[in-house]
Every structure is written in structure tokens, then in C-alpha cells.
Amino acid sequence: MRHIIYVFLATAVLMSACQKKVTDDIKPQDLLSSDVVFSTPQKIENAVLAGYDALQSPEFLSGRVLIYVDLLGEDIFDRTGYFTELPRFNLTSNSGIAYNVWTAGYFAIATANRNLAGIAANSSKLTTAKAKELTAECKFIRAVANFYLVNFFAQPYVYTADASHPGIPLITQGFTSNDPAANTPKSSVAAVYTAVITDLTDALADLPLEYTGTSNDAYHDKTRGTKASAASLLSRVYLYKGDYANAKKYASDVISGTYGAFSLNSTVDAAYTSNGGEYITDEGIWSIPNNVNDNPNTNNALPMHYYPTGRGDLAISPSYLSTTTNPYFAIDDKRRTLIITGTTSQTSSYKFTRKYTDITGRADWAPIIRYAEILLTYAEAQARLASGVDADAVAKLNLVRDRAKGLSPSYTVLSFANKDALIAAILGERRIELAFEGHRFWDIMRVKGTVTNKYDSDGTTILPAEPFGAKKNVFPIPQLEVDKSKGVLVQNDDY
Amino acid sequence: MRKFLTSLWCCLLLLSGELLAQTRTISGKVTDANGNPVPNASVIVKGTRVGTVTNTDGGYSLNIPPGAKTLVISSINLQTEEVKIGPANEYSLALKAMDASLDEVVVVGYNTIAKRSLTGSVSKVNGDVVANKPVTSFDQALTGKAAGVLVNTSSGLVGDDVIIRIRGGASISSGSSPLIVLDGVPITQGDQGQLYNHNNPLAELNPNDIESVEVLKDASAAAIYGSRGSAGVLLITTKKGKAGQSTLNYDNFFGFNEAARKMKVLNASDYITTVNKLRSNAGLSPGANYGDINSDGKLDTVNTDWQKELSRKGMVQNHNLALSGGSQRTTYFASLNYNDVQSYIENTEQKRGAVRLNIASRVTDWLQIGANTQFSRTQTSGLGSGTGNALSGIPFGPLTAMPNIPVYGADGKYYAGLGGNLATGYNVPNPEAVTHLNYDNRDGRRFIGSAFGEAQLIRGLKFKSQVNVDYATGLTDQFWNPDIGDGLGFGLKQKVYNERNTWSWYNTLNYNRQIGADHELNALAGTEYTRRTSSYTYTYGAGIKDPDLLLISADNYDEVGGENGIDGIDDGLASYFGSINYGFKKKYLATFNFRADADSRFGPKNRWGYFPSGSIAWRVTQEDFMSQFSFVNDLKLRASYGVTGNSDIGYFPAISTYKPASYADIGVLTMANPGNSNLRWERHKTFDIGIDAVIFKNTSFTIEYYNRKTIDLILDNPVLATLGFPGNIIKDNVGEMRSRGVELTVNTAVIHTRDFQWNVNFNTAWNNTKVIATNANNDQVFDKDPAATFSLAKPGYNLGVFYLVRWSRVNPANGFPIFLDVNGNEKQYNMNNRTWSFVKDGTNTTAIGAADRVVLKDKSPYPKFYGGLSQTFNYRAFDANIDLQYAFGFYLYNQTKQTIMNYGNTRNKSEDILGAWTKAGDNTDVPVLYWNSNLWSTQASSRWLERADFVRIRNVQIGYTLPRSITDKFKASKLRFYVQANNLYTFTGYSGIDPESNSIGNTNIGLGIDRTRPYLARSYTVGLNFGL
């Protein structure tokens, strides 16, 4: 009998060990439990960097977002109908395009928010300086996402005098569970811009001039938030807001070298072609990097959509090529060398850009802020602030134009009849210089312009003019989200 | 004297009577229902120990004592018969098989129980149903064999998914596949494919080893498996040796298989006409013409039937050698199997070699030990270019390749040009080339084994301990050639080695006792620990330098790389369970089961799940009042209620996790899963009520009703994007489903004479699975697979109900396609000016799009009625059987047809396109040919939704068994020859690949999408069964 008891006791001990082995002892080997993510400085930094990875989403800054802004404008047309009704301003409320942009943007914001909370709760594990720097990076990321989202899903800042019209929900909390607080109504566009400006201003204070101690500092400088990228983005935000004094101020700080040395490359294509599509030249301020292993893949990458041997969906529109409809684009402008003719039987009758060419590796970076933009922003703000034709504005315009111009002479103050002519030239230059980099439609809208000479997917039919203020200039709030919000989130007009 | 004489006479009389009785010998022959002799049957005079056993011919001879009145004749697996002894001296009889009886024993989890004592819902399928069938895995042979068990073979590609659903879908976001337990070992199932092909791991089992498959359907039966029981349980028992019966069996079959169907696409001449018509109607130049293939300056009239080029008569063969026997102490079963199925698709094949050894030994009176083991190696040759919508896959390639270009060019090499055609939207590499030059092969090895010891502690109390292992590995070896197809220009070699390992250990105490005459008690208590792990190692080389050297090395490739990791499974389960069966006077029966499971994947506080079930049964025929209804041989009413769980919930669903990711060159840590520390078990509450009856001695039937409610669904809850969770999903216990239905099984001997027997087995099931609720908003939930958004889960509708834009018709006036918008208004698309307008008044309007989708009520991929009808016939030495399978009341989305009805590319088209509208007044459902109508011809709509009802002749077999007189000459016990046709013909109105087509795999919502997966195979085989 005693033996039987021993046997059962031994079995019980063994069973209890077994129970532990098949339950408590099992932890994921390829995932980190969230409570250890903020346990060391290196892990915290890696978590913060995930915010950039979120911005790099194929549906967001590393691909689609830039395309949408250009496709709403008149410089390109959707040769294959890939983007369905988007170029016709006719998305439906359950559009996948709108849903994906919304989702990607809020994922970046949520990542930044969760990291802000994680840094705050674990600040003892970081030096004060590092905590500040990482906090600044999170705010930079959050500002970028909010800025792009508010421009897609709400009317431009200048739509109402005080920008009191509906914007997007402002999310500042880092959610880790299905928290009802995420169901927030839209804030006004003014409130969103204020939040973006606050974040960027905070970021500007604490972001580094340049990164040190990484495996490739130059790479980090061009792809993470820096003082220069925060200031540059601030100048764009103020420009969109119509606050030209501030737009000029921040552009000026970048140009004067306060945040590091930036300059235009000597040729028009070096920014895109150097280092195999990595924008590490002095012309690049902030870009979203891609590489052969991590890129938006065959259906979303910029080269796939833009380059004729890729998908080649996006052909350059006749209205961009023509000197009638694009009057500042001289026939001998060197930027025309960035335009090529399609090489396949399907594309040979169309023109394409060669800003993004890496079909095999799809490693082309996405240019978000180039120095040329800062020069043109400064020129425009300065021109608008001055009373007459401003020489400083003309000088900055010339910096961009002279690199590309053919035989025509440089501008002088005398080239322009009045201030408006100068502004028109600057805007015209901006269209040419920043083409296919995600600026065009918003540059028209912020000055209350109208999209004209926009081509349908056949490349011959001209679509109706799309005026400033048209309801469908903005994307629909994804209907799924409107439904899920149970009325808290209000659908945009006319959707 | 007279008195003496009288006495003497009396004595003589008595003596003679005595003598007469003592010398009486009776004899006879015992056969089974098919007329085969039954050896080793016991023949006993009732109430005595006088008896004998039959010889190999089934014959016996027995001296019977005086007063013997009844013979009892019995044999294993046959019904015991009693025969009255009359004046005759010969008593031959046929013993009926146990099947039609309630006396057989069924396996119910960790225990066995007499079927008459069963209170739950269990269907039993005998092993002969799955043996010797030309199928690639045994699960396919279960099709239509058990009521309520839906077995769906996704396609004819070897290794493709076989979906098993017991009583409809069991969940929305979690799994719905039954647990499969082989001799107590929970085995790995589900797709194991690593690259471009699927792999069904059940193909690694030898079907001929299977003694029986028990299907536990209701909560009473399945609750003993607790958290794993919600979708039902398949218990597979392999063959075991029997004491005193040594047998050696050799079974084989040979044959071939071919495609069971063929969708018709255009021949070269129709293709050219159609493509050019499409283009000319749109004002475009011609897009198709014959080309000058051999460069002789003349156009070559080529007509290639690509489907035919890629098809063949694939050889199938199977050899199975089984040795079985044993002494009173030790029994064994050993088998050796080789199975080779060459698919009808060129270059695809599955070969399996399997060995099994089952051994059990009674070491002492109180201790038995044993082991059941199998090892198999399964080599699968798959398509390197995949299936589905892969441009070079099968059948996409052969369906869409231009028919006016040749397989080979003038140089004898694979033709890679376009002939005289334009390449618009055409990117199909030569399908014959990629099928032969590319491959995706898998070499799988699998060991499944268990070892047990069972000790009788005291009378009626047994302790059993069993350890189990299922260890499966696969080496996938894939190649894309650098000359044509997917690998064009670089060439790619990939290798994946993956492992799945499950070990478990269970212990049971089983107390079995008859108390007095009236009480029967069987109690079981047990523990079980289960651990599942997985891993993979992946390497690749791209940019091949010398294609004849294929090992991945940095020297031979421009780029090499790889990684390793966990392959989605890493969990453990601790379980404690108990079961009580009680019977009173064999009349009133009750069962209570309980299981507590702790799963590592839940947070500590919600880890434990408790799964009770109870059931009662009343054997009405044991009541005295039933004696007047003598035609009712057995009648049992039963009811059960219980709770089960669903453990098919994925990889660490509850804990909040981060994973490494990249920001191009910069490594980051990003959220993988927000987790949900409150996540707890999904629970399924099932009520089941049934009647089991045997009437007129030879007809048994079971009818039952069930209602299964699933609550606390572990749903991939679609949440607000502003929360910022990956995929906008968080796992939550929200939502509810209801699955209910009626099942009927009838087994009957229609004709049963000495020479001719006709048995019928019919089963049918009606099922309805409805989503009651999802989350707090009752949001609609789509399949996880983004390619499966034609259907959804929506509260108030059947699971997987289709959600599509409604197709209306083709306008007979102009040939334009007409759809219905969300409000039911007809909108037509004018191809000439590319505008949409209302049909009723011609005013322009917005395009039809995703916003016009509506839920198509009652149109789901789950059949309303399904089942099977099996008939067996025996006439003297001949036997035949015919199995039908049927399913009614379900729909498929025919995306294959949609793909080959595209108006905007130069790929080949369906023959249906020849019926396109050409002139005013044409009534057709094919719009006018007009090039590049991307805007409508690729619009997913109900135009492609088809009712898929079908009746399939699943298997037909005719056999002839040589008479004993001949087989005796070479000392064999059995020699049977047979011919067999599998998947012979399908009656259906469905026009796609097959009414069972499924391209999404094992899912709940997105079933029923027919998207270019290969046709099912039809096989013809001849074979023999030989026994010693």
C-alpha cells in the first residue's frame, strides 16, 4: 500500500511540473511582451523608431500618399485606371484608398502616442537628454501624420477664415486596449494645425542637429527627425496656413544654416540618382527610406507606379508638358531630361518621370522635404510679405531655376511686372521642381486655385475643372469608421 | 417373465435413447453476410461448456449432449446468433455484421463504451470505407459517410486542403476544424505548405491502417476533449492484432487519373475573332493574329489546347501489406504501405511510404503494455508557379494562355513569344515551360507514436498512462528557372525546413463495475498535458549563375539569405477530466463529463476553462410494454447538453506583444498585437436530442436535432482605426453564433437472401449557421484573407453570406451591362462614352462601386442539405458498391469564370464570351464586346455567383472473390479482384471548376470562392485483396 502511495505522490509531483511546463513556462520566442519593450534605452529607442516605420507604410509616405496628392492635381493621369475614381474626385465612402490612408496615419499617431507614454513611464531608464530627444522624435512623427491626414480628410486651412471647419479627430493618448476614448469627434482644422505646430515646435527644440553614434549617421540624419526637418516642415505648415511670416522665418533658419548645411546639387537629377536612389545629398532634408528588403512592394512602390517598365500606371499629363498650360516649363529646361518615353508596347505613347526608377529593388526613397522646397517656400513667403517685387525672393527663385534653365536668362527684379507676377512665377517653378513628389494638389488648394486641364485615364479626355472648396476635394472618412463610431465621427459632406 | 421382458425393453429403450443421444453429431457451416466462411467462430451448446470452433472453411462438427436445445454461434465483429436444435443434423447460418446493431463498442475519448449504452451523438465509420481508395488522403474518403460531417476537397492538386466541418462553422475568427486524435495522439492537421503549394498532413497516414473513425458530434461526446471539442472530434483507431488470428493481407490497386471536368476556353480562331472584335468595337486596332513562328515569312496557323498540353493520364498505385496476429499474451499489427498518385497535372505527384507497428502485451495478469507507432515519408511534387491567380500557375496559365501560339518554337525550345498578338494585359508565361522547369517539392517525414501501460489495481479499477508524440518535418525545395516565368532574368532557389512537434501525456483511472443486477457504473478520471511547438528554417538564393548547380551557396548566386523562426505554433495545455456513465437496468442511462483545461495562450487569470456536459438516455425497448411491438428491436431516446471550447485561436492572441521590423536599414520594434489580458475561452453550448432505433431486425436509423450556441466568440473585433492597432483588430470575446440542424442516418438491408444482398446506408443533414452578434456595434466582419471580401459575417445572416454588387442584366437594346445600385436602381455602363446612367430615365449618374454591395440573404457557401448514399450489393461471389455524395442549397463565387471573361486583356477567354450581345434585341447575359472595360468587367458582382448544388458519384466498385475451392489450393483465405472508379461523375449546374472549389483554404467566412484552382481528379483503378 505504501508503495502505491509513493507512486501516486511521485506522479502528483511530476504532474505539477508538467502543468507548469505546458502553461506558465511558455513565452513567445519571436515576440517581445510589451512590458519589456520599454526596459532598456536601446529597446525604447527602437520602439520610438517604429513611428518612422509606420510613416513608411506603403499606404502612406513611402508610396501612395505622394501619388494621391499628385493624382488629384493635373500633372499626371492614371493611365491604367488603377486608382479608380480618385482622379475624378469621385471616391465612394467605402473607398479602400481612403481607408488605408486613414488607418496608416492613425497607426503612426498611435505608435507615437504609445511611445510618448512609454518614455514618460520609463524616463528613469534614460538620460534626460535622451528622453527629451526621443520625445521630440515622437512628436515629430505625430505632427507629420496629423498634417497629412488633415489635408486629405478636411478642407484646406484657408477654407474658412478662422479654419473652424471640421478637421480630424486629434488623438493624443496611447491606447493599449479597446478604449472608448479613441472614439473622438473631429477637431477643427485650426485645432489640428495648432497641435501640429505645437508638436513641431517642441520637436524643433529637442531634436538633434544630427545623429551621432549610430552605425550610419548620415543615413539617420536624412531619415529621422532633425532640427532641420522640423523647421522645414514648420515652414510648410505655416505656408499652408497662409502665415507667411512664420513660413519665411523657419525657411530662413534652414537656409541660413542654423540647422546644418544644405544646398542644391549641381544637376537636376542628382537628388534622385545618387547612392542608388538614397537621398543623402545636401539637397535632401528629410526622406522616407526604402531598401531592397523593406519597400512598398510591387503594387505600391513609387517606381512601380511611375516607371514605364514597372506597372507604369502614372503617365505625365500633356498639361504638364505643354508650355501653354505649364508656362514656366521652358522647352530647354533641364528638368525635361527627367521625362522619358515609355519603352514597352503599352507605354510607348506616353511620357513618364524617371525620378523613381528602381523596378527590381524598389528601393527608391520617397522625397518628403528637399532643400528646393525650402528655397521656394522662402521665396513665396518673402514675395507675398514684401510690397513690391522683392529682390530676395527673386534671388531664392533663381537658385532653384538657374540650375535647370536652358538658354533663357536668369530672372531679375525687372523680369516681373508686379508682385503677383513674381508669385505666379514662384508657384509655377514650384509645380515644375516639386512635381511627382506629393505637392501639387495641395499647392493649388492652399491658394484657393482650381484644378484645370486635368486628363482622364485615356490621356486625351479633359476632366471638368475642379474648383477650390468642392466637397469631394477631400477624401471620405472611411464609412467603416463612421459606422463604428456610432455617430461620433461625422462623414464628410457629399459622401 | 413378462415383467422381466418389459423391464428389459424399457432398459433397452432407455439405453438406446441414451445411445442415440450420445452419438448424435451435428455439423454446418458459418458464413458472414456476404457468404464468406467465418473461421474461428465459436459454436457452443447453450448452457454447457460443450463447443468447438469453425475451421478455415467456416465448417464445424460437434457432438451434442442429450437435452441440448440451443446452439450459440459467435464471432468477433459479427452478431451472435442462437439456433434451436431440432431433429436435423445440419445447422448452417450466416452471421450478420455488427454494423446494424447497437451492440458494437465505440471509442469515446479516453474510454470505450457499448454503443447501446451511448448517450451522446457519435457516428462511426469503418476502416474499409477509407481503405484502398485512390484518394490522396484518408479524409477525402470520409466524404458523405457520416451524417452532419461535411468533407470538402478544395481542388484536384495533390496536397490541397480538405475542409472538414461537423455541423457547420463553429466560429467566425477562430478555427472550425475538428480535433483529430489517432490512438490517443492529438495529431497535426491543417495546411503545412510553406511556399506556393498547400500540403495536407493527413496524407501522411496510411488509410489501410485505419480500423475505424468515430466522429464525436455533440457536447456530451466531445466535452471530454473540453477546450478542443467545439468543432467535433474525429477519433481514429488503427488496426490491432487479435489473439489467435494470424493473417497476412496484401492489397493493391493500379490505375490512372484524369481531370474530372474541363472549362472550355476559346480555340485559336475564335480567340482571334473575339479579341479583335473587342478591340474594333472600341475603335482600336486588332490585337490578335497568327504569328510567324518559324520565321518563314508566312503566318503559322497554330491551335494549342493548353489545358490538354498540361494534362496527362496520371498513374496511381497502392500496395499494402499487413500482418496481424498474436498469442493470448501478445498481439501485433504491422503494415507496410506504398502509395503513388501521379496527378493528371503534369509534374505533380504524391508518393507515400509508410510503416506501422502496433503491439500490445499482457506482461502479467494485471499489467498490459503496448505501443502504436507509424513512420511515413511523403514526397510531393508541386507546381513551382503555384495555383490560384498566379499568372503562371495551373489552371490560370492554361486557361488564359493564348491558343494561337505554340508550346515549342521552331528551335524546339519552349516558345516564349506572343506570336502575332499584342501583349496588352497579357503576362502569362508559357504554362508548359513553367510547369516543367519550375517546381515546389516537399519531402515530409512523420512519426506518430504512443506507448502505454495499463494496470489493473483492484477488480474493476484500471490505471492507464500513455505518452504520445506526433513529430512531422517537411523540407520544401523550390526553384524558379531564370529563362521563363516568375524567375525570368534571375532564377530563384528557396528551401524551407519546418518542424511540428506535439507531445502529450495522459493518465486515466477507470472504474468499471456492475453493482447488483441493476446498476452499471463506469467512472473515469484523468490528466493530460499537451505541448505543441513548431519551427522553420528558410534559405534562398537569387540570381543563379549556373542553373545546373542548385545548392544554395554564395558562390553560385548573386544574393543568398535566409532566416529561421517559429512557425506559428507554440503552446501548451494542461487538462484534468472526469467522466461517469451510469446505467440502471440497462434501461436508464446517464453520462456526465467534465474537463478543466489551462491553455498557455491565455493570461494567467483566464487560463482555465471548465467544460461540463451531461446526457441521459432511455432504452425504451427494455420496457415491458414494448414487447407488443416486436418489430422494434431497439429504441433509444437520448438528450444531451454541454459546453465545449475552441482552442484553435492562433499564436499568442492574449498577450500584448512587439516584434522587430525595419525602417529600411534601421531596425525598429513595432506593435505586433495589442493583446487582451481579459481574453477567455470561446464557449459552445450544445443541446442535442436524438433517437436511435433498430426495427425489423435489419434497419437501423438515427435521427437527431441539435442547437449549438457559440458565445464569447474570440472575434477579430474590427475596432476604430484611431486606436492604432495592427489591422485595426483586437481579439475580444464578443459575438454570438447559432448553428442548428437535423441529421438522419438510415442503414438497411433492402434485400437479404442467400445469394443476393443489397444494403443501403443513407445519411442526410440539414444545417443552418447564423451569426447572431459580432461586437457592440454589430459590425460586419470580413475574412482575414483580403482576397475573400465577397462574403462576410453579419449579425442576423448566415455565416459567410455573400456580399456583392447585384448584377441585373444586359440591356437588349444596346448590349450594355446593367447593375443595381444599393437602392435597387438599374444603372448601366455606356462603354462608348464611359459614363454611367440610370436605365429608367437615361440620366447620368455615378459609377457602380463597392458602396453598392448588399448582403445576398440566404446565399452562403454552406450547404443547407448534404450527405451521402452508399449502397452495397452482393451476388454470390460478386460484390459491388456505389457511393453518392450530395450537397444542396449553397452558392459559389465563380471567380474563375470572371477571370476568363475579362474584356481588357489579350488573355484567352471562356467560350461563354461567344454568346455576347451583337445586335439590338439580343437577349444574353454577356455584354457587347468592347475593349478595356476595367470599370465594369472586373467588378465583383452577383453575375458570378452561382448555385452549386450537386450530386456526385463518388465511388463505384465491383469485385469478384474467388471461391474457396480455388483459393484453398494455394492455401489462401481470400482473393478478390476489383475495379473501381472514383469521382466518376458529377451532376451539377455549376459552370466553374467544381462545386467543391475553395481557394481560400480552411476558413469560416471566405469559403466558396472558386478562383482558378485545379479540377478534381477522376480515377479508374483495378486491384486485388489477398489474404492468408
Question: What does this molecule look like?
Answer:
- The complex is a heterodimer of chains A (495) and B (1028).
- With 495 residues, chain A is mainly α.
- Chain A has one domain (37-484): Alpha Horseshoe (Serine Threonine Protein Phosphatase 5, Tetratricopeptide repeat), CATH 1.25.40.
- Helix content of chain A is 46%, strand content 5%.
- Chain A is built from 19 helices and seven strands.
- In chain A, the strands form three sheets. A two-stranded antiparallel sheet of chain A has the order 2-4. Chain A has a two-stranded antiparallel sheet with strand order 3-7. A two-stranded antiparallel sheet of chain A has the order 5-6.
- The mean pLDDT of chain A is 93.
- Chain B is mainly beta.
- Among the domains of chain B are: 21-96, Immunoglobulin-like, CATH 2.60.40; 105-240, Ferric Hydroxamate Uptake Protein, Chain A, domain 1 (Beta Complex).
- Chain B is built from nine helices and 54 strands.
- Chain B has a 22-stranded antiparallel β-barrel.
- Classes of the chains: A mainly alpha (495), B mainly beta (1028).
- Chain B: It is found in: Cell outer membrane.
Please give the domain count of chain A.
1
Largest sheet of chain A: 2 strands, antiparallel
Tally of helical segments of chain B: 9
CA gyration radius of chain B, whole angstroms = 33 Å
| CATH fold descriptor of chain A | Serine Threonine Protein Phosphatase 5, Tetratricopeptide repeat
As for the CATH topology of the domain at 105-240 in chain B, it is Ferric Hydroxamate Uptake Protein, Chain A, domain 1
| Share in β-strands of chain B | over 45%
Outline the secondary-structure elements.
The complex is a heterodimer of chains A (495) and B (1028).
Chain A (H helix, E strand, L loop, with lengths): L1 H21 L9 E2 H4 L3 H15 L8 H9 L3 E3 L17 H26 L6 H26 L35 H18 L10 H7 L3 H15 L2 H12 L14 H4 L10 E5 L8 H4 L1 H5 L7 E3 L1 H4 L17 E3 L9 E3 L12 E5 H15 L5 H14 L14 H15 L6 H7 L32 H6 L11
Antiparallel strand pairs in A: 2-4, 3-7, 5-6
Helix pairs in contact in A: 3-5, 3-6, 5-6, 6-7, 7-9, 9-10, 9-15, 10-15, 15-16, 15-17, 16-17
Chain B lengths: L1 H22 L1 E8 L9 E4 L5 E3 L5 E5 L6 E5 L6 E4 L8 E3 L9 E3 L4 E3 L7 E5 L22 E5 L8 E5 L12 E4 L2 E2 L23 E7 L2 H4 L10 E6 L8 E13 L8 H14 L24 H4 L4 E13 L3 E13 L6 E14 L4 E17 L12 H5 L30 H7 L1 E20 L2 E20 L11 E24 L3 E26 L12 E9 L4 E15 L3 E12 L8 E12 L12 E14 L11 E7 L2 E8 L9 E13 L3 E13 L2 E5 L10 E5 L2 E17 L3 E18 L7 E2 L8 E3 L7 E10 L6 E4 L5 E5 L4 E4 L5 E2 L7 E3 L9 E11 L2 E11 L2 E4 H5 L34 H4 L7 E3 L2 E12 L2 H4 L6 E15 L20 E2 L6 E11 L1
Parallel strand pairs in B: 1-7, 13-16, 49-53
Antiparallel strand pairs in B: 1-4, 2-3, 2-5, 5-6, 8-9, 10-15, 11-12, 13-14, 15-16, 17-18, 17-54, 18-19, 19-20, 20-21, 21-22, 22-23, 23-24, 24-25, 25-26, 25-27, 27-28, 28-29, 29-30, 30-33, 31-32, 33-34, 34-37, 35-36, 37-38, 38-47, 39-40, 40-41, 41-42, 41-46, 42-43, 43-44, 44-45, 47-48, 48-51, 49-50, ...
